[in-house]
Design a protein that fits this description.
single chain; DNA primase DNAg catalytic core, N-terminal domain; Dna Topoisomerase Vi A Subunit, Chain: A, domain 2; 11 strands; globular; binds zinc ion
């Protein structure tokens, strides 16, 4: 996938970054509350998007253009749109020396993001102090039972409205449902969170949200900066990564298959440090075959820079966590078989 293709395929992430809400089932998204009195179910997303009510429409580039006040048909402004997309999706930028104005702008946004991240880190550290009284049953039903994990990853259960400032939350009437909170920690700071719901209206479209206005990040991405790592499991979803972590293995999740290029880029940046590491790619077996296709693509790319990469077999299960929850014995044996001693 080229960069523009990744951006095009990440329309949902971009919409969520600006605070739009995916539908309860199939059907329309809820448009941005800043553009409507009642934005509920206005936004049709079928490849491109269209909201008849406020007039936002088009692809990822058009959406960013509209919301950032940039014209996507103007060449110079289009580059700014692409730059913003890189920022939202946290894509690595090829090295080109920025000019003075760009340096100033990027310093400014870094400072704003930095303030938000400090605030967020503070909030999570305060709230996770109450971890003892938290009800971790949902995590436990998914086999995440290692008490060390709850502490280390500062997992939280609670109403997001009571935890986060409103500027970080999508304006959603049932935001309370997203009560399972998994902080994404990078260099010791909380840079975003994954909010998971598990009520009876939860489905594959709407089950997770990120905090609003913060870039997409890997869960446990810091592992890619290590040296002397023997092996690591690369997962699609955060519960798959938690499944491995539950047994003391190292794992990270990329949280969306469009992020495989970013993963590759980060591995490449630390090629020397990771030259002896085995990458086990454990993406989903979804109906459309996207997960497995992305896994194959990633493995080829990693091999092309002499990084060891293998795909992990899931039998008939759709993802790692489902495999583990349904057939723990087989799952653990399959892991023991592949990992180096
Ligand atoms: Zn329309
Ligand atoms: Zn609208």
């Amino acid at each position: 996938m080229g960069n523009n293709e990744i951006i095009k395929n990440s329309l949902d992430k971009i919409l969520m970054y600006y605070g739009a809400i995916p539908p309860r089932g199939t059907g329309n998204w809820t448009c941005l509350s800043s553009r409507h009195k009642n934005p509920r179910d206005n936004l049709s997303v079928k490849g491109d998007i269209c909201c008849c009510h406020c007039g936002i429409k088009g692809d990822s580039f058009a959406v960013i253009g509209e919301l950032e006040g940039l014209g996507h048909k103007d060449k110079e402004q289009f580059l700014l749109i692409v730059k913003k997309a890189f920022e939202i999706l946290n894509m690595p930028v090829e090295c080109k020396k920025p000019n003075r104005h760009e340096q100033y702008e990027s310093k400014k946004t870094k400072k704003q993001d930095g303030n938000t991240i400090n605030e967020l880190t503070q909030i999570i550290s305060e709230v996770s102090k109450k971890a003892k009284t938290m009800n971790y049953i949902y995590f436990k039903t998914r086999g995440i039972i290692n008490p060390y994990l709850f502490k280390k990853y500062r997992l939280i259960v609670g109403n997001p409205k009571r935890i986060f400032p409103s500027k970080l939350l999508p304006n959603l009437t049932n935001i309370w449902a997203y009560e399972y909170i998994i902080p994404i920690i990078k260099d010791g700071r909380v840079v975003n969170c994954i909010l998971r719901r598990n009520d009876n209206k939860s489905n594959s479209n709407n089950k997770t949200l990120n905090l609003k206005g913060l870039p997409v990040e890997f869960f446990n991405g810091d592992y890619l900066k290590e040296t002397n790592l023997k092996y690591i499991f690369i997962c699609e979803g955060v519960f798959d990564a938690l499944t491995f972590l539950n047994f003391g293995h190292k794992a990270l999740s990329i949280n969306s298959i469009v992020m495989i290029n970013k993963l590759f880029q980060e591995v490449k940046n630390n090629k020397e440090g990771l030259k002896n590491t085995i990458f086990f790619i454990a993406f989903d077996q979804d109906e459309k075959g996207w997960g497995q296709k992305a896994a194959a693509e990633l493995i080829n790319k990693l091999k092309s820079i002499n990084i060891k990469a293998k795909s992990l077999k899931l039998k008939e299960y759709k993802d790692i966590n489902e495999y583990y929850c349904n057939n723990q014995k087989s799952f653990l044996e399959s892991i023991d078989k592949v990992i180096p001693i």
